[in-house]
Amino acid sequence: xxxxxxxxxxxxxxxxDCFPESLSVNxxxxxxxxxxxxxxxxxxxxxxxxxxxxxxxMVQALEDVKAAGCNALxxxxxxxxxxxxxTLLAKHFDGPVMFIAAAEEDQNxxxxxxxxxxxxxxxxxxxxxxRNVKAYIPEHPVGTAxxxxxxxxEFLPIARALVGLSSLKIISFGPRPLNFLACNAPIxxxxxxxxxxxxxxxxxxxxxxxxxxxxxxxxxxxxDMEAELGGGxxxxxxxxxxxxxxxxxLDWVEAHRGYRKYVAIAGKCWPAFQTQFGFVPCYVNSRLxxxxxxxxxxxxxxxxLSEFVGTCVSEDAVTLLDINNTVPADIYREDIKEAFPxxxxxxxxxxxxxxxxxxxxxxxxxxxQMIMARSLPEEVxxxxxxxxxxxxxxxxxxxxxxxxxxLKAYVAxxxxxxxxxxxxxxxxxxxxxxxxxxxxHVLIEKNFPHHGAVAFGHFGKALFEVFKYLGVEDIGFNQxxxxxxxxxxxxx
Length: 492
What we know:
Layout: E1 9-14, H1 21-38, E2 44-46, H2 55-67, E3 72-77, H3 83-92, E4 97-102, H4 117-130, E5 142-143, H5 145-166, E6 168-173, H6 188-192, E7 196-200, H7 202-211, H8 218-229, H9 239-256, E8 262-266, H10 273-277, H11 282-290, E9 295-296, H12 301-314, E10 318-325, H13 329-336, E11 347-352, E12 365-368, H14 370-373, E13 382-388, E14 392-401, E15 407-416, E16 426-431, H15 435-444, E17 451-455, H16 460-469, E18 474-477
Parallel strand pairs: 1-2, 1-3, 3-4, 4-5, 6-7, 6-8, 8-9, 13-16, 15-18
Antiparallel strand pairs: 10-11, 10-17, 11-16, 12-13, 14-15, 14-17, 15-16
Helix pairs in contact: 1-5, 2-3, 3-4, 5-12, 5-16, 8-9, 9-11
């Protein structure tokens, strides 16, 4: 995967000057040793310059981790810790920050060897709030060397998403299509998140596409498409145009990324796209998303934003799907009811025209867009990648701005069932525990649009922490039975 940051975390130990400095030094070394032994030594840099006890030490540590190329920071309380210096360390570090602390080792070290970091973490959190400094604090932030190493590893995908967002540009083409106001949201929150946006007309895109006619790279892209599609290459005549379009987007990204390192695209795909370009862009969208460059449909800017977050967290391709239709009762009865622990209301079909990466489909073939072809000539709707989505764990999620510029999000874990859809498009039968209640009291009640991002695996914990770090106060999830939603009728 390309188009995402490589995270290098620096670990800096801090110490209260009335506690033995050796506690923080030795405990830090033990954490680093545990991390390197189990994970990857290239992820974590141990700051050797000093133990931070004062503001002067804080500056020295900052300069050291910066010189080492660290873009994420772990502040480690080896003992009680200096609440002022440690929070200033987090304040002045340019990147995501995590706070963890040392547990006591054994009964023989509770006099001169007691560190009291359990207490110090309380002061650290209070001082972070006083200074309005963001930091990630795990659910159980005080632990042994091995436990702290595990916490640091869990911080890695969170940090990757946050670093990525800080250098992201979303490139959009055209206004949202008619009757798709659900995909329209104020862009102010993008700037609040540190994300840049470049909004273009689809006419600009069409001009760039025309300039790529006869591009000498087209045959090689066509060959790559043919190899990917294999026996599913049912529309070979459309591949040169799709290759031309792919090159148009990739060249636009390079010419327009500016000072940003990472890019996502919110693309136009109808209603005039087909008649002017002569195809639909779904397959190209799937190919770019499979490379780590998310491309959302219907100019869904916050959909592209969500996809990028999911890509960074999972280090894998994601997709954007409509939360689309119910599972017919006969399919549920014949294929699901006795085989899986889900009620009928727990299931639904996630669908889009053909934008899901081929690696995430059980089978695939190039076809035309059936819905669009009901009102347009079929030959201009070629270019969808159709197939059932691979069964396995998934996380459905979205980060969204409301009409009054407030961020909200949802995260729900479930799975794609190994059940044939008997339908068309990029589609799968999804099962999420308590989906019926989640659909009503989160998706509907909180006015989320019909598009949801899908990560292939269970990444709810990391995504939830990313959204918390970003300051999202309203994060919905599929609440279990017995846990009532605020708007849920207790007498129903």
